[in-house]
Amino acid sequence: MTMLVKKIRQPHLFDFQIALGVIWACLTMVGCVSQEVVRKADWETNFTDLHFANQRQGWIVGLNGLILHTMDGGQTWIQQESGVKKDLKSVCFTNNRYGWAVGYDGIIISTDDGGRHWQIQEGDSSAMFNDVFFVNSKVGWIVGEDVDVLFTRNGGKTWKRHQFVSEFPLNGVWFANKYLGWTVGEYDRILTTGDGGKGWREQSNRFEGGETE
User: Fold this and answer.
1) What average pLDDT does the chain have?
2) 208 contact partners, CB below 8 Å, separation of at least 6
3) 36 DSSP 8-state letter
4) What is the DSSP letter of 104?
5) Is-contact 67 59, C-beta < 8 A?
């Protein structure tokens, strides 16, 4: 070991240092070495929703148009440029490419490349969108305040409104397929549909479980 150290220290020290520098640069460029350290105060804002497309790829949305993306199961997060400054309240991806985010002032943004680029679909409404859900890259729904239920059959290029689903704000929406779905809202409201949202009926909100200690 001593002889090896002496060899490096004497005639080949400069070459050895260059070799280390080249290796480090190559590892950094291909992503083998990560110098990023994520801390709690990196963004100093409120996160409002998250969605994972698989075990490794996920997205977080927050105030002022914030979107974060992870490709390693949440060990590190990188900010994506949303192109908007309005608060985002909900995000949904159908796979690692197609996604949508919604929020204040009727904002709807979408991506077809995993969030590398986001496009505004709507943004000139005074409504507040609380939740978005897509069953595939074409069929989706949005609920919120003063909006009832919006739905699309073409990936969000156009949105139509289901009138008078609820007289109270709706906060969440989920579909098992393109026909069967539920939405929930203020004052214990639970509504369900079996025809893709054309008709909705209220479900019982009675809690039948026992109290937990």
Assistant:
1) 80
2) none
3) -
4) G
5) yes
Query: Considering Cα of 83, then 84, then 87, then 90, what sign does the dihedral take?
Result: negative
Structural domain contains residue 41: no
Residue 208 within any structural domain of the chain: no
Q: 């409002």: which residue's tokens? A: 48
Distance between CA atoms of 74 and 54, rounded to whole angstroms?
11
Structural domain total, the chain:
2
Residues in contact with 82: Cβ distance below 8 Å, sequence separation at least 6, in sequence order = 65, 66, 67, 88, 101, 109, 118
Do residues 124 and 156 share a domain? yes
Give the containing element (helix H, strand E) for 101: strand 99-103
- The CATH number covering residue 125 comes to 2.130.10.10
Q: Which two tokens stand for residue 81?
A: 């440029």
Can you give the pTM of this predicted structure?
A: 0.74
Alpha-carbon distance of 23 to 101, in angstroms, equals 40
Mind listing the pLDDT tens digit for each residue in 141-181?
Answer: 999 987 678 999 999 999 988 876 777 889 999 999 999 99
Domain span including residue 2: 1-35
**Contact at 8 Å (CB) between 160 and 140?**
no
Contacts of 105 (CB under 8 A, 6+ apart): 86, 123, 125, 126, 127, 128
